[in-house]
Amino acid sequence: MSHPNPPEEPRPLGALRRTPVQQRSTERLTRILDACAALLDEVGYEELSTRAVAQRADVPIGSVYRFFGNKRAMADALAHRNLDRYGERVGARMADVTPGDWRGAIDIAFDEYLAMKRSVPGFGLVDFGIPSAPDAMPDANLDVADRVGEILAAHLGRRLDATLRRTVVVAVEAVDSVLQLAFRTDPSGDAALIVEARELVHAYLTHRLGETE
């Protein structure tokens, strides 16, 4: 989702105790988050532990605590990384969409979320927030809406003003509710509910943005 303003810098990975500077530290942080994601799929959030992550990442437990105070902070950082990668994936595909075509842009945002939900380790439990610990990232959907809104506004050649931002927030909240239901119904995503979610967002944005921009 040509950019009128410089792209926003990726936000920090959650509440990191220490930001890696050297390549070795960056690679170690990546291994820790990769291990966290893999273990989420295997044991779930409640059974996740910093010690198990350290063992899977093949790093000393002290290396985990150097970055994170607890497993919640670690999962939060994973959610931040997921959002950054989601924004990169969506943004990279915008060149294939005709400028001003909001339907094409939104379909890419929709499809990339589905692709990550089905293929990215840990994403099923921690996509852009921690469902079992909502206070850890209470505004996860607002963060998603801001990222999608920036990409959409740039694609439409307009400013992300309060009206457009509110429109995207409503769309994200509505689609998220239906897609969460779709993946609770079927681990791969209930096909009929996914169609309903896409039709819902198209109908709402047609009402708000019009047939063309």
Question: How does this structure look, described?
Answer:
This protein is mostly helical and 213 residues long. Helices cover 66% and strands 0% of the residues. It is built from eight helices and no strands. It has helices spanning 23-47, 50-57, 61-67, 71-93, 102-119, 140-156, 162-185, 191-209. The longest helix has 25 residues, at 23-47.
The tally of beta strands, per DSSP, is: 0
Q: Calculate Rg over CA atoms.
A: 18 Å
Largest sheet: none
> What is the count of DSSP helices, taking H or I runs of 4+ residues?
8
The SS-based structural class is mainly alpha
Topology:
Layout: H1 23-47, H2 50-57, H3 61-67, H4 71-93, H5 102-119, H6 140-156, H7 162-185, H8 191-209
Main features:
mainly alpha; 8 helices; globular
